[in-house]
Structures are given as structure tokens and as C-alpha cells.
Amino acid sequence: MKQPDQIVSALAALAQQHRLAVFRMLVEAGPDGLAAGVIATRLDLAPSSLSFHLAQLERAGLVSTVRAGRSILYSADFAAMTALVSYLTENCCGGSTCETPATPVPPERNAA
């Protein structure tokens, strides 16, 4: 995933709330992955909507599938994820050590 068009495709796929949630769930599930029905139930997504999002993630190279009997299991492509993070951080801090303390992200505030 070193080609710029692949990086842009992966970032674009993750730049959507439901796809990001699906991908994070698959990362948590590990290499065994999850069936689409499980993902849909946990995220309260309609099956047709989930299929669309899974297809986008698969097209971007972030998700792989394997048939298990009559089910299809979806799992995060950990090599692609690692390559994406590596690409984003390969020249971090101009080659110097980047040891800064983690800054907590403030909670989202309601606009109302």
C-alpha cells in the first residue's frame, strides 16, 4: 500500500463514520473476523447499508473476506493497516525521536 492512490483510497474509505466503526470493530475482532450479521447487529446498521460499507473497505484494501460454510467472515487486513500507518509516520519528526507525551483528546461538546 505504498502507492499514493492506494493511501488516498484507504483514507477516503475510513473517512466515513460507519466505515470507521466497522473497521475498528474488525480490528478488535482480530484475524478471525466477524460475520456481516454480527457487525450489522452490533452497529445497528441495515444489511444493505453494511454491505455497501464493507464493499468500500474491501475495495480500499482494508478488509478481506473468507468463506466459512455458508457465511462470509470479514476481517481487517492488518498488513494494509500497518502499511497505512507506516506511510503516515515514515518521516515523522524529520527522522528525530518524537517522544512527546500523549495529549488526551477532549470530549466532544454539543453545539446546543
Structural notes for this entry:
The protein is an alpha+beta fold. 51% of the residues lie in helices and 12% in strands. The protein is built from five helices and three strands; from the N terminus they run H-H-E-H-H-E-E-H. It has a three-stranded antiparallel beta sheet. Strand 2 (63-68) and strand 3 (71-76) form a beta hairpin. Helix 1 (4-14) packs antiparallel against helix 4 and helix 2 packs across helix 4. The longest helix is centred in the first third of the chain and has 13 residues, at 17-29. It is globular.
- Terminal Cα span: 41 Å
Largest sheet: 3 strands, antiparallel
The amount of beta strand, in percent, is 5-15%
The helix fraction, in percent, is: 40-55%
Note the run of SSEs as H and E.
Answer: HHEHHEEH
Shape: globular
Mean pLDDT level = 89
pLDDT below 50 for ≥5 consecutive residues: which ranges?
A: none
Beta-strand segment tally: 3
Strand arrangement, largest sheet?
A: 1-3-2
* Rg over C-alpha atoms, rounded to the nearest angstrom: 16 Å
Overall structural class, as computed from helix and strand content, comes to alpha+beta
Number of helices: 5
How is the secondary structure organized here?
Elements: H1 4-14, H2 17-29, E1 34-35, H3 36-43, H4 47-59, E2 63-68, E3 71-76, H5 78-89
Antiparallel strand pairs: 1-3, 2-3
Helix pairs in contact: 1-4, 2-4
Brief write-up:
This protein is of the alpha+beta class.
Keywords:
single chain; alpha+beta; three-stranded antiparallel β-sheet; 5 helices
